[in-house]
Amino acid sequence: MKRKRILKKFQFKTIFKIPGHIALDRVDIWLQDEARFGQQNTTTKLWAEKGSRPRAVKQQQFEYAYLFGSVCITNGASEALVVPYVNKDIMMTHLQQISDRTPIDRHAVIIMDGAGWHSDDIDADFKNLTIIKLPPYSPELNPIEQVWSWLRQHHLANRCFSGYDSIVETVCDAWNDFVSDSKRVIKMCTRDWMSLIS
Questions:
Q1: What digits encode the pLDDT tens for the residues 7-22?
Q2: Are strands 78-83 and 64-72 parallel, antiparallel or unpaired?
Q3: Contact 41, 156 (CB under 8 A)
Q4: Could you give the CA distance from residue 159 to residue 172 in angstroms, rounded to a whole number?
Q5: CB 26 within 8 A of CB 106
Q6: How many CB atoms lie within 10 A of CB 111?
Q7: What are the structural domain ranges in the chain?
Q8: Whole-angstrom distance, CA of residue 89 vs CA of residue 84
Q9: Closest-CA residue to 108 (of 29, 22, 170)
């Protein structure tokens, strides 16, 4: 019952926000979020010889980079920015990436959380996209959160970084590896309640 309510609410919000001349089969669903990666890194389990105690280095420095990432569950497309800090201007630049990527005859609906730089007016200057904010304190509703776990597990955990440039390079490599397989992107991030067409 709760799942049906989520589906109906999502469909209603989406249909209400997109322009009336856009058919539902021409709407692309994008998922957007930001994650911080850096020298205070994640440690994970390691394969090791039985009876041994493998060690992983934990850095004490505080250099970070932020990854603004978006994936489209409709076609597996993606966009990303790696930046040293977060603010509304960077968010607008990221939205411009998605807008530029959206074909002329289509409309993008972007699902995101309510971070401070995701102000209610950030989509006002764009004709081909709208945003839908998730309820507060519900990151589990945005499947892109799983992408951050995948990046850490496969590329970024148990690593040392010499500085900001090293972090940026590694984060870019990790993101590019993830999005190189559009089927993986769609499979990991699609949920049945996101369907607009029953």
A1: 566 666 666 777 777 8
A2: antiparallel
A3: yes
A4: 15
A5: yes
A6: 23
A7: 2-44+58-194
A8: 13
A9: 29
Q: Does the predicted model carry a pTM greater than 0.70?
A: yes
Tens of pLDDT, residue by residue over 145-186, are 999 999 988 888 777 788 899 899 999 999 999 999 999 999
Q: Which two tokens stand for residue 110?
A: 């972007």
Residue at 55: amino acid letter: R
Give me the residue label for tokens 């389990």: 45
Place of tokens 């978006």: 70
> The tokens of 137 are what?
């304190």
Question: What is the C-alpha to C-alpha distance for residues 94 and 77, in angstroms, rounded to an integer?
Answer: 14
Q: Say which CATH class 2-44+58-194 falls into.
A: alpha beta
Task: Round to whole Å and give the CA distance between 35 and 153.
Answer: 14
Written as six digits, the tokens of 191 are 């949920």
CB atoms within 10 A of CB 33: 22
Residues 29 and 194: beta-carbon distance below 8 Å: yes
Give the whole-angstrom CA distance, residue 55 versus residue 31: 36
